[in-house]
Amino acid sequence: MNVRDIMTPNPVCISHEASLKDAHLLMQSRNVRHLPVISESTGEFIGMLTHKKMIAMVLTMLNKYGQGALDRKERYTPIAEVMDTQVQKLGLDEPLTIVVQYFIDNKLGCLPVVDEQNQVQGIVTSSDFVKLCQRLLLQQ
After folding, report:
1. What is the pLDDT of residues 80-100, one digit of tens each?
2. Computed from CA positions of residues 14, 22, 28, 67, in that sequence, does the dihedral angle turn out positive or negative?
3. Is 123 in contact with 110 (CB distance < 8 Å)?
4. Among the listed residues 95, 86, 89, the one whose alpha carbon sits nearest the alpha carbon of residue 115
């Protein structure tokens, strides 16, 4: 099996020019915990924003500036300041035997799937592996 067999295709992405508030609202409204960040001009993958990282930043802002300034700080904090840029990427044909070991060794929640032009094609999350496990168990 390969990445394409379990990935979530066409994941919700966000522009690198968006604010932390935009990301917060998008994660809430679309019920996602991982946002691939793409270049506004080229659409290429440039980073990843996780719910964990976003919440950590929001809590830091809350503790530093207080509830009254939180909304303003979120609106004026670009995602580019918060996202992870050193992110391992997957290809569509990456074997799952390698990917699952990478998830285990690095305690990851997700990895983006990109094509040869660095365009986001999908995302693989730990939930995708749980769903695969369920499918395999039900086949027994």
Report:
1. 999 999 999 999 999 999 898
2. positive
3. yes
4. 89
